[in-house]
């Protein structure tokens, strides 16, 4: 039986939209349909029967946040959401930006149209430190004499392997086009070229799943790492991209890696480039508010999507022409653009601001809970990423004229992103060590 639970962050409705502008919003309590079966002992957690039934708590009032359940010709329940439409009609793959135990919680999301999963050190820090689901494995590892770093990676790798298994069918059906699960190298290696390469090789071998993406940050020292890892035939999710200049360097590293691989069949070496969006507006908006002119204030909330549209234009340019066509003959696949950081940081903005305007073919949108629920509820499925490139170029140039230094924005956000992941990693290691010390004392 499907159940409905109240969202902690209600979805927002909005009206009168433009490609890159800010849409007015109004909030109302919403509900999220939990597509898992109510039987907690069920391994599959799959829905069955000819129709969905709903259990509604009379104390909860509001509209539903997932539109689904259409019967197929055989009378069984087929859940249709905007995520299915996004992929089937526009060629964009919706991924989920979160991972925790039990990993089987991903099953209803997969049924709702999610086609991949991304993780990062901050996600694992939250998952492991707030859940009891890791306790048994943690205890076994500590009692086996494992050091804390090893314990951390054993916990992470198990989640990644289990998630890869769930997405294996999608990976197989799309011939390696989708169904990936991403896991990041140690964040402390963000400035270590060789260390990143070795960590990526170790992590890839440790997970040992064809549909795993090894995440490598797009820091300057790691650009050569990306080329090297790709040349070894390891698929990569390049993360923490905040500027057009760095994005072009990432594309070149991918192309260089493919050319240096020496492989006759490049079809199994794939990559995504994770271009971050909402954090761009968070920083640029502060800069615009400091400038304070009407022109500056009018550009708030527009920088991120404008830069993203130009990134897509660059993507189209780089993955065309003689150099790319030569790689295609060997089976090479485009390094898809992935929109990351799609949750809205400013509550005054509509909750699908970093999803609706960034829809285009051969791209990925990875969404955390808030953005995913909002898009399923009231997202618009239409090709928007290149619907008004001239407007994006105008916004980008207008911001430059106001003194916004895009190079500074990219560098600052990269520093903040790397620092955030390092702090999350260090915090988790410290808490695990403390927990291990307590466990050892109890065992004495």
UniProtKB/TrEMBL annotation:
<dbReference type="InterPro" id="IPR013785">
    <property type="entry name" value="Aldolase_TIM"/>
</dbReference>
<dbReference type="GO" id="GO:0004801">
    <property type="term" value="F:transaldolase activity"/>
</dbReference>
<keyword id="KW-0808">Transferase</keyword>
<dbReference type="InterPro" id="IPR004732">
    <property type="entry name" value="Transaldolase_2"/>
</dbReference>
<dbReference type="GO" id="GO:0005737">
    <property type="term" value="C:cytoplasm"/>
</dbReference>
<dbReference type="Pfam" id="PF00923">
    <property type="entry name" value="TAL_FSA"/>
</dbReference>
<protein>
    <recommendedName>
        <fullName>Transaldolase</fullName>
    </recommendedName>
</protein>
<comment type="pathway">
    <text>Carbohydrate degradation; pentose phosphate pathway.</text>
</comment>
<keyword id="KW-0963">Cytoplasm</keyword>
<dbReference type="GO" id="GO:0005975">
    <property type="term" value="P:carbohydrate metabolic process"/>
</dbReference>
<comment type="similarity">
    <text>Belongs to the transaldolase family. Type 2 subfamily.</text>
</comment>
<keyword id="KW-0570">Pentose shunt</keyword>
<dbReference type="InterPro" id="IPR001585">
    <property type="entry name" value="TAL/FSA"/>
</dbReference>
<dbReference type="GO" id="GO:0006098">
    <property type="term" value="P:pentose-phosphate shunt"/>
</dbReference>
<comment type="function">
    <text>Transaldolase is important for the balance of metabolites in the pentose-phosphate pathway.</text>
</comment>
<dbReference type="InterPro" id="IPR018225">
    <property type="entry name" value="Transaldolase_AS"/>
</dbReference>
<keyword id="KW-0704">Schiff base</keyword>
């Amino acid at each position: 039986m499907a159940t409905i639970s109240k969202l902690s962050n209600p979805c927002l409705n909005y009206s009168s939209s433009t490609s890159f502008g800010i849409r007015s919003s109004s909030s109302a309590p919403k509900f999220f349909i939990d597509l898992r079966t109510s039987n907690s002992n069920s391994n599959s957690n799959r829905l069955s029967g000819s129709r969905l039934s709903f259990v509604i708590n009379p104390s909860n009032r509001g509209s539903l946040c997932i539109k689904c359940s259409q019967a197929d010709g055989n009378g069984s329940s087929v859940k249709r959401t905007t995520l299915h439409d996004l992929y089937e009609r526009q060629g964009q793959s919706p991924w989920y930006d979160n991972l925790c135990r039990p990993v089987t919680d991903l099953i209803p999301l997969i049924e709702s149209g999610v086609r991949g999963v991304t993780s990062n050190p901050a996600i694992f820090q939250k998952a492991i430190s707030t859940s009891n689901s890791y306790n048994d494995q943690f205890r076994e590892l500590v009692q086996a004499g494992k050091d804390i770093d090893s314990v951390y990676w054993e916990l992470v790798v198990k989640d990644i392997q289990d998630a890869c298994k769930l997405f294996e069918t999608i990976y197989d059906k799309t011939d390696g086009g989708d169904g990936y699960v991403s896991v990041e190298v140690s964040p402390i290696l963000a400035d270590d070229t060789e260390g990143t390469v070795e960590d990526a090789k170790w992590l890839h071998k440790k997970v040992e799943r064809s549909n795993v993406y090894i995440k490598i940050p797009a820091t300057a020292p790691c650009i050569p790492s990306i080329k090297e890892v790709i040349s070894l035939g390891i698929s990569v999710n390049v993360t923490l991209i905040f500027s057009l200049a760095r994005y072009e360097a990432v594309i070149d590293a991918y192309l260089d890696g493919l050319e240096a691989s020496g492989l006759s069949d490049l079809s199994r070496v794939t990559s995504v480039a994770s271009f971050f969006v909402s954090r761009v507006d968070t920083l640029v908006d502060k800069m615009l508010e400091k400038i304070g002119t009407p022109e500056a204030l009018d550009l708030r909330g527009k920088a991120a999507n404008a830069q993203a549209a130009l990134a897509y234009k660059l993507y189209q340019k780089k993955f065309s022409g003689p150099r790319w066509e030569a790689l295609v003959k060997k089976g090479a696949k485009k390094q898809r653009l992935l929109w990351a950081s799609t949750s809205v940081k400013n509550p005054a903005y509509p909750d699908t601001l970093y999803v609706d305007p960034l829809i285009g073919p051969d791209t990925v949108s990875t969404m955390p809970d808030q953005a995913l629920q909002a898009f399923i509820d009231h997202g618009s499925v239409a090709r928007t990423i290149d619907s008004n490139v001239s407007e994006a170029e105008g916004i980008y140039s207008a911001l430059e004229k106001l003194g916004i230094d895009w190079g500074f924005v990219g560098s600052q956000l990269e520093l903040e992103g790397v620092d955030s992941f390092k702090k999350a990693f260090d915090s988790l290691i410290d808490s695990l060590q403390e927990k291990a010390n307590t466990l050892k004392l109890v065992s004495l």
